């Protein structure tokens, strides 16, 4: 069963060993175990907010449904659930099972003046699901029952799905016939195709398979004005590309009911290789050279020295790690070393060719390969790392992640600015944060920068909320200050909306608003996401 | 000097040899040499249309300027120029030399109620430059003096140009420092960066360098509402991607003044290889398998049997071709053979690896390689083939090209439907057309389909115009009927605007119009391009 107030399945529990706990205590202090609110207490809060929706046969106003549909995985969502400070919840939940039901619900919501929030896997980390303030009733439309593979064209390598299908289900339906989409964000276990598309998601192997933008060939957007049908061409110069209006629309223009995706045959060969480099400058230079050499690697991920230390400390196996570190030191990778993970995917010939070329580049930068030992470990845990959030919480620590993308000349300064902003924000409250960073997606032009912050939750909701919002604000400002985008892969939602004008400009935001106003003149869709409170 | 009524430079003349002429005569009949209108006659027609623009120090109303700025390279443009049936010409021409002058002109045009047509290299083949009907004066803004390289970042591999820079000038400025954009459409000699971006151009080696969409990292659009500044991120999930509003906007939202492009180091190694395959099904299957194997080839171009025959016939060198054909026949490539051109570009190791993998695939489909003999020839003539239009005209033949993109299962049927539509349209007038086709850009999902039609011009403008419009209409309908996009690489302009609704839907077109109305409420920009006469 899925956890109602944390990440993932209740049968999966990661444990923090004593060494890992000691590592954290040393850095940010010992923490108290928090006292989480109970499910029954949370339900009582929902019951205290009577639904403002009139009855409809497809809409449930049951409290458990309303509770579960009102929160994603933003740390703000966690704090409200764990401390039992729910705030506003949605007024009702529908699980349409067909396009017809979906359109019926949109029409009904329009007619009664409700706001509709589309919800895929409820994995948003930027507040997409928080019901907006105001007098209008809120209907959350859960799309998880729209999960069928509608068509698979093996010649054009296209698969059409109902857009509510979640990662494992989607891959299972494709793999049964020898195909894969290859989209593996960390939210893979629950996130849906439609959510990926409308928030511009990026998977761990996007270097091979592309960001979701590159896979999305066409689809159907159910808007308040009717259905927008977007045909799947291999390419087109026929004016504006309407797919781009769906991508990143975050529910503001409608609900994606179907999507036609570019899929591939399952690769013949795949391996992940961990390579240590002596220090950050060497690692960054190697990552850049590898990206710019366009070798066709499926993944490049570079941990900075603190993340490398943290990874090794949290891995357990102190003795094995000790041996590894001695061997690395002997080969030039000592205290400041960094870990680069490479993904090699393709035909056997392609993997051989890219491995030879990558090896030559890495050698020039002092790289020491550990073969596939760490790679296999990374692969086994690729969707489990996020369960650490539960384990850390149980010991009194909160975790948040923030990310951006910048061009290569800004990468190092941005890493520093983001980590420093996090440190300073908590220092001002007399707290410390353990901050570490990796480059998760590497391009010829630049890189994403993905930072993790671990800090003590504090004694109560108010303390925790103040710490989180101070951190979030400081880091967002640092990102904008470095000229980075406010999100490389998480989206905008409500948490990032205040920072969007810095990159779109007032001109840009007003034009986006004009488009929303045209397609959704009554403001039915996902009000509050993406753009907040622009004067019309 | 540039030809005023045909393609290219007056010093370059391709000749049709007797054999080539015989080949055409046999297929579509002997033609009369046309009597072209003189420059002085055309000028007189301009003078008969007094400019409706008030004076402005940056605007020329000189007749020669107005004449040259009113036509692109659509066959319709040719017919009007060659027969001296100009129709409406622009009222004035400006050559802004800075963003400030550009913005000054936009403001002035707005204030006096003029329409502004941005003009890059005047190579549009879809009527972008034709002044719209109506009472408003028309100002054509020529952007060719905005041609400077403003910044080159070798670390992020980004080059920022003023957007009026033309192909050879852009490459010269980059190559001086060891870089290339790698964008080589057939219009390369004159077309500009801004034109490529705003019409979604695709170059011959887009398989390596990407369509212009993939190269365009950011820029500045000068709109009637002000400047839209689009920062150059490596990637972003921050809502709508404003670059996509510039791409394919065809002047309707403003003028692109600057563009930041993703550039690459000049490749270490490049070769073009010509391979014959026994017949169309084998060629198509090989092209698809090569595209779907994602080998990193820079080009894949497959001529159908008629284009293959035509290429060999027009090449001259009858004796050498005879030897070649005997050798090919002996190896299984006889009457129905097709020619596949491959581009291999990259480091020496990459080219070796992709060549080995390509060879293995081609062998399975009965491919016979001619090495780089035909490839070198293709390379030498890559921008000269278009000069054939002048040579054919001189002998009484008109040439038009039409193109689309469809998914693999539709490719063969689309080739047939397009060629048949062309044949039937002219047959209905008692004329014949020589029609041939190649796949110019090949994707895992499908392919572009690029067809050429040669037919007799006829005795006068009315005959020629009727033949051309009948052909254009029939082929456009065939494309739409096959579910293809109305353009893979030429754009929409005025010639394709009537067919846009078939792929965007009324919903889509109305939303595009709403965006135009927001950004350009007075309708200053490029009126008539992209969308025509939608009810507001």
UniProtKB/TrEMBL annotation, chains A, B:
Protein name listed in UniProt: FAD-binding oxidoreductase
Domain FAD-binding PCMH-type, residue spans: 86-266
Signal peptide feature range: none
Domain of life, per lineage: Bacteria
Family stated for the protein in its record: Belongs to the FAD-binding oxidoreductase/transferase type 4 family.
Keywords: FAD, Flavoprotein
Coiled coil: none
């Amino acid at each position: 069963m899925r956890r109602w107030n944390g990440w993932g399945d209740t049968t999966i529990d990661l444990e923090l060993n004593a060494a890992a706990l000691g590592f954290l205590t040393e850095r940010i202090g010992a923490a108290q175990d928090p006292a989480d609110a109970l499910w029954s207490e949370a339900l009582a809060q929902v019951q205290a907010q009577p639904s403002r929706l009139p009855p409809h046969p497809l809409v449930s106003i049951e409290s458990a449904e309303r509770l579960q549909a009102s929160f994603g995985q933003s740390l703000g969502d966690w704090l409200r659930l764990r401390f039992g400070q729910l705030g506003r919840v949605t007024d009702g939940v529908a699980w349409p099972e067909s396009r017809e039901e979906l359109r019926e619900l949109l029409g009904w919501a329009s007619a009664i003046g409700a706001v509709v929030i589309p919800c895929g896997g409820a994995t948003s980390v930027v507040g997409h699901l928080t019901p907006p303030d105001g007098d209008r009733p809120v209907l959350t439309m859960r799309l998880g029952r729209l999960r069928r593979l509608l068509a698979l064209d093996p010649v054009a390598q296209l698969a059409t799905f109902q857009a509510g299908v979640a990662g494992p289900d989607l891959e299972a339906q494709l793999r049964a016939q020898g195909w894969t989409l290859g989209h593996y964000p960390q939210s893979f276990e629950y996130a849906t195709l439609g959510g990926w598309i409308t928030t511009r998601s990026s998977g761990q192997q996007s270097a091979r398979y592309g960001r979701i933008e590159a896979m999305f060939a066409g689809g159907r957007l159910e808007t308040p004005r009717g259905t927008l049908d977007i045909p799947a061409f291999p390419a087109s110069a026929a004016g504006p590309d309407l797919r781009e209006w769906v991508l990143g629309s975050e529910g503001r223009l409608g609900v994606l009911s179907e999507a036609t995706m570019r899929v591939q045959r399952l690769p013949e060969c795949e391996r992940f290789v961990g390579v240590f480099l002596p220090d950050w400058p060497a690692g960054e230079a190697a990552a850049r050279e590898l990206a710019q050499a366009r070798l066709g690697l499926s993944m490049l991920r570079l941990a900075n020295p603190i993340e490398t230390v943290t990874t090794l400390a949290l891995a357990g196996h102190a003795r094995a790690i000790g041996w590894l570190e001695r061997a690395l030191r002997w080969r030039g990778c000592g205290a400041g070393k960094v870990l680069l993970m490479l993904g090699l995917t393709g035909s056997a010939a392609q993997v051989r060719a890219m491995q030879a070329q990558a090896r030559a580049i890495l050698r020039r930068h002092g790289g020491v390969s550990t073969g596939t030992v760490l790679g296999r470990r990374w692969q086994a845990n690729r969707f489990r790392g996020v369960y650490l959030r539960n384990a850390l919480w149980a010991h009194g620590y909160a975790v948040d992640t923030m990310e951006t993308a910048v061009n290569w000349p800004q990468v190092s300064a941005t890493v520093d600015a983001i980590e420093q902003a996090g440190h300073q924000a908590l220092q001002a409250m007399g707290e410390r944060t353990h901050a570490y960073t990796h480059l998760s997606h590497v391009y010829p032009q630049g890189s994403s920068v993905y930072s993790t912050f671990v800090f003590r939750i504090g004694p109560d909701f108010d303390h925790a909320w103040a710490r989180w919002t101070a951190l979030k604000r400081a880091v967002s400002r640092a990102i904008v200050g470095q000229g980075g985008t406010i999100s490389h892969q998480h989206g905008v939602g409500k948490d990032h909306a205040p920072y969007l004008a810095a990159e779109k400009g007032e001109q840009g935001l007003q034009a986006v608003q004009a488009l929303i106003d045209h397609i959704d003149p009554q403001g039915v869709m996902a009000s509050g996401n993406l753009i907040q409170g622009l004067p019309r």
